[in-house]
Design brief:
Blueprint lengths: L2 H9 L39 E13 L15 E19 L2 E18 L2 E8 L3 E9 L4 E10 L19 E11 L4 E12 L1 E2 L4 E2 L3 E12 L2 E12 L16 E14 L2 E14 L5 E10 L1
Antiparallel strand pairs: 1-2, 1-15, 2-3, 3-4, 3-5, 5-6, 6-7, 7-8, 8-11, 9-10, 11-12, 12-13, 13-14, 14-15
Length: 299
């Protein structure tokens, strides 16, 4: 396989280097502006060729268990189902900074949320909080890529203080991230992205979600046009939530998920993939399952 073909395959790892809509985590009303586990095998990669790239991600999250700070199920009537369609538009420019390629990304999520709590049931379907990204990627050789990026999640989503099924969060977040991707087209593939999430205050409720750390990961093996592997995330909230309704423990969340992934590559610039991730650890958050279906291509 030529270097160009290898780089085109690596290009498909570009589109989820930084952000997505969240499901149910510790934070105000159990929501966050980032979906841990969303990068999968797209983690840590940016195309080495200038141009416009596109990724469609369809995800379905379901849970009927909400855990306390010790990971024990809370005895309440709780259920959440969230169906999201997230469109990612990535542009790689000709501009160089410190020898790396400057790139930018826009993430546009639409979410249908169905939430049941002891006080009742609520549903919502709307545009969620969009995210804009700018970053730099260094292609050390045909196998190794390093990147840095900054996500800015914006309060563009539907929000009403009186509702409890809000897909918008009515605040901003700033998410610096670093990533690494290793690709052998007929062998090992590894990707990882680490980020910090700094949240601003929801001015409608005077609630501020604490700073969060998320590590997304993927490891697998390529053979012919197929890739099999495992994907998931680790989440740790580093600081307490602040506001008039914060629990005494600061409502810090913690989570770990893992599950299988399968990919089929039609050609070096077009692929489909699917994964399932199960929450093995969940503290101050819901514990459930997420199924992803991804379609990636280059315009």
């Amino acid at each position: 396989m030529s270097n160009r073909q290898i780089f085109k395959r690596l290009a498909l790892a570009a589109l989820v280097s930084c952000s997505a809509i969240g499901t149910v985590e510790a934070a105000e009303n159990g929501n966050t502006q980032y979906a841990p586990g969303s990068p999968q095998f797209f983690a840590g990669g940016i195309p080495p060729f200038p141009g416009l790239y596109f990724l469609s991600q369809t995800s379905y999250y379901t849970s009927d268990r909400n855990n306390d700070a010790n990971g024990n199920q809370m005895p309440i009537n709780f259920k959440v189902n969230a169906l999201a369609e997230t469109m990612r538009f990535l542009y790689v420019s000709d501009l160089k900074v410190a020898g790396g390629d400057v790139w930018a990304q826009l993430v546009v999520p639409m979410v249908h949320l169905d939430l049941t709590l002891p006080i009742g049931n609520d549903k919502s379907f709307a545009l969620a909080d969009m995210t804009a990204t700018v970053g730099v990627a260094w292609h050390v050789d045909r196998n190794n890529t390093f990147l840095i990026g900054l996500d800015i999640a914006m309060p563009t989503g539907g929000y009403d203080k009186a509702d409890f099924a809000n897909v918008g969060l009515n605040h901003w977040s700033f998410q610096p991230a670093i990533g690494y991707h290793y690709l052998d087209p007929q062998g090992l593939e590894v990707g990882a992205t680490a980020r910090l999430i700094f949240n601003t205050e929801n001015t409608s409720t005077d609630y501020k979600t604490g700073t969060e750390f998320v590590l997304d990961y993927a490891v697998g093996w390529n053979f012919d046009k197929w890739r099999l592997g495992a994907v998931g995330y680790y989440l740790q909230q580093l600081t307490d939530d602040k506001g008039p309704r914060v629990a005494a423990d600061g409502h810090r969340g913690k989570g770990f998920a893992i599950g299988p992934s399968i990919t089929y590559k039609f050609n070096p610039g077009l692929e489909i993939s699917a994964s399932w991730q199960h929450d093995l650890v969940a503290e101050n958050k819901s514990q459930g399952d997420t199924v992803w279906f991804n379609f990636a291509t280059k315009f």
